[in-house]
Design goal:
Length: about 260
C-alpha cells in the first residue's frame, strides 16, 4: 500500500494505517516489549486522526454533512455503504419471505383434502363439497388432492389480500376464485342441499368481497374536459388616427408661430 508522508493538516490527508506507521510512541511507553510498542503507536495514531484535519475527523465531518445535504453531495463511501446495506437487507427479506411461503405451502399441502374436520357448521357446508370435488378430479390427474386444495386456498388468500390493496390482477383472481368455488360446490354438494350450500357460499364470498373489492365502483367516470381544438374569438376594436406633425422651432413664419389662413 503506498504511504503518504505529508503532514496531517496538509492537502493530502494520510489514512489511519499511514498514521499508525508514522507515529512514534512516547519514550515513557517504550519498555522493550513489542506488544506495548504496538499499543502505544495505535493510541497515538488514534488521537492524531481525530484532530482537526485528520482522517477520522474528516470522515465524521462528511457524515454530518450528509445528514443535512442531498444524496448527490454525500461522500462516495457513504453512498456505497448505504447501497450495500440496503441490498443486504433486501436479500435477507427475500430469503425470509421465501422460507415463510415455503413453510405455508408445506403446511397447506399436509392437510388431507378429504377431511373436513367434524363435518358440521357453516364453513364445513361450503368447504366439504370443494374437498370432495378436488379429490374426485385429482383421481384423473397427475397431482395429489392435497396439492389442489392447497392451491385453491392460496389463490383465495392472495386474491383477498391483493384485492384489498387495489391490485387489478388480484381482484381478477378473486372473481375467478369465487366463480370456481360456486361451481365446485354446486357440482359436489348433496342434491337435497345443493341450492342452500351454493347460496351460502355466495353470501360468504360477497361478504369477503367487501374487503377484496374495496373502493371498486360501477358508476361511470365522466371527465369534463374541454375539446382539444376549440376556436377562440377575441373581438378587438382598432382605431387609426393621424396626428399632425409638430412644427419645428424657429421656422419662417416668425417667432409668434401664427399661420395665415389658406384657402
Amino acid at each position: 500500500m503506498p504511504h503518504n508522508n505529508k503532514p496531517v493538516n496538509g492537502n493530502d490527508t494520510p489514512s489511519f494505517l499511514d498514521l499508525l506507521n508514522q507515529m512514534q510512541p512516547p519514550a515513557a511507553e517504550l519498555d522493550g516489549k513489542h506488544g506495548t510498542n504496538r499499543l502505544a503507536k495505535l493510541r497515538a495514531a488514534w488521537k492524531e486522526s481525530w484532530k482537526e484535519g485528520g482522517f477520522l475527523y474528516q470522515r465524521w465531518e462528511e457524515v454530518l454533512q450528509a445528514r443535512q445535504g442531498s444524496w448527490h453531495d454525500a461522500a462516495t463511501w457513504i453512498k456505497t455503504s448505504l447501497l450495500l446495506g440496503g441490498l443486504s437487507l433486501i436479500v435477507l427479506m427475500l430469503d425470509a419471505a421465501g422460507d415463510v411461503v415455503s413453510a405455508a405451502l408445506k403446511g397447506l399441502s399436509d392437510v388431507p383434502a378429504t377431511s373436513g374436520g367434524d363435518g358440521s357448521g357453516l364453513w364445513a357446508t361450503v368447504d366439504q363439497p370443494i374437498r370432495v370435488f378436488l379429490a374426485d378430479q385429482a383421481a384423473h390427474l397427475a397431482v395429489a388432492p392435497a396439492a389442489l386444495y392447497a392451491f385453491w386456498q392460496l389463490t383465495g388468500l392472495l386474491g383477498l389480500v391483493g384485492g384489498f390493496f387495489g391490485n387489478a390482477g388480484a381482484r381478477i383472481a378473486w372473481l375467478l376464485f369465487g366463480i370456481g368455488s360456486l361451481a365446485m360446490i354446486w357440482s359436489a354438494a348433496p342434491a337435497g342441499g345443493r341450492a342452500a350450500a351454493t347460496g351460502l357460499a355466495a353470501l360468504m364470498w360477497a361478504l369477503a368481497s367487501i374487503f377484496a373489492l374495496r373502493g371498486l365502483t360501477l358508476r361511470p367516470i365522466v371527465h369534463n374536459h374541454p375539446p382539444e381544438f376549440q376556436p377562440q374569438f377575441n373581438p378587438a376594436l382598432h382605431l387609426h388616427a393621424t396626428l399632425p406633425a409638430p412644427t419645428p422651432v424657429g421656422d419662417d413664419l416668425g417667432p409668434d408661430n401664427v399661420h395665415p389662413l389658406q384657402r
